[in-house]
Amino acid sequence: MPALAILILILSLSACRPADTGALAIEPPNVLPTSVQELTPDQVLNLMQSTPDMVILDAREEWEIKQNGRIADALYVDYLNGGRFTENTAKLDPKKPTLIYCAIGERSRLGAAILAKKGFTQLSVLSGGFEAWLTQGKPVQK
After folding, report:
1. Domain count, the chain
2. The 3-state secondary structure of 49-90, one letter per residue
3. Domain range for 61
4. What is the pTM (predicted TM-score) of this model?
5. What is the pLDDT of residues 80-91, one digit of tens each?
6. Is 17 contained in some domain?
């Protein structure tokens, strides 16, 4: 009987451990800096049409882009590869209108917070990410 009690205790303690969330257990900021706008897919499409010099950043991984396509002319910055993100965004003009998006919005919010700290003044994120873009039938470049 004591062995059974010990076994139950061990099982109950291990069941209470938090799940392993992987290397990136970073939460997106609850509130984006005031300089960052969160835009719907319709608003992004309108902005793209009215702002031809806008820079569009795709923060997803390469396999996501290959699988689902991307917004036309988006630059690949891969937020999860910090070195690539830093290197590719360091070359950008922080005064140009810039949109950043990812799959559902978390990585783009994190990336936007970093870019805002680097002085980007006309920065936007795609609310709901590329999934929202696809769901609303917006144009995709394969």
Report:
1. 1
2. HHCCCCEEEECCCHHHHHHHCECCCCEECCCCCHHHHHHHHH
3. 29-135
4. 0.78
5. 998 889 999 999
6. no
